[in-house]
Amino acid sequence: MQSNRSGRRFDIGAMLAEREAERYGLHTQHLNEMMVRVVQTLGFDVGFSAGQGQYLFDRAGNRYLDLLSGWGVFGIGRNHPLLRETLNSVLARDLPNLVQMDVSVLAGLLAERLLGFVPFLDKVFFTNSGSEAVEAALKFARRATRRPGIVYCDHAFHGLTYGALSLNGDGIFREGFDPLVPGCSAIPFNDLAALEKALSARDAAAFIVEPIQGKGVNLPDDLYLRGAQALCRKYGTLFVADEIQTGLGRTGRFLAVEHWGVEPDLVLLAKTLSGGHVPIGAVLTRKAIFEKVFNRMDRAVVHGSTFGKNDLAMAAGLAALEVIEAEGLVQKAAQTGSRLLAAFEAMAERYELVQTVRGKGLMIGIEFGPPRSLKLKASWTLLEAVSPGLFCQLITIPLFKDHKILAQVAGHANHTIKLLPALIITDLDCEWIVRAFEAAIADSHRVPGAVWSLGTTLANHAMKARATK
Question: Cα angle vertex 310, ends 209, 86, to 5°?
Answer without folding.
Answer: 100
